[in-house]
Task: structure prediction
Amino acid sequence: FGSRQFCRSLSSPRCGPRFAEAMPFVKFEHIAREWRLKWSADADNASLMLAQAQLEEVLADVSSIEGVASVQRVVCGGCQDFKVVTKLPEKAFKEWEAKAFEPEDAFLEAVKKIPGISAVETQTYTLEEVKLNKKDIKKAQDKKEKEQGEGETQKDEKPPV
Result:
């Protein structure tokens, strides 16, 4: 994960209200909190299995946070990432943030104690479904074809002499 600066909370100028004002073209209704870590393949992936067990310890609590839209777990065997992403509508997220993202501290402290776990971090970001429905796909394709057709018409026209 390196030494990059990440959004830690909505009060950060990089992802709070100032971000939304500076980037009005980035529309969002949901905010996600990510917990992430690196695990080791040593001892038949023991650290990964223990990280999963710690997630299972707090999963009912995370799933029952008022307004939670989704809780996803991401595991990459190639880069040995383990991530938990909790998505909520903005209002519910702010309420969870005011409660210090409970049970975040307990989970993070538990996984930090697991041998083979490193780079335990958190990040806050917007998270939106952007997949188009069939009707909107058709509109986008028609618009693209129209723009391409207009571009070709302009190419065929001879410049004034």
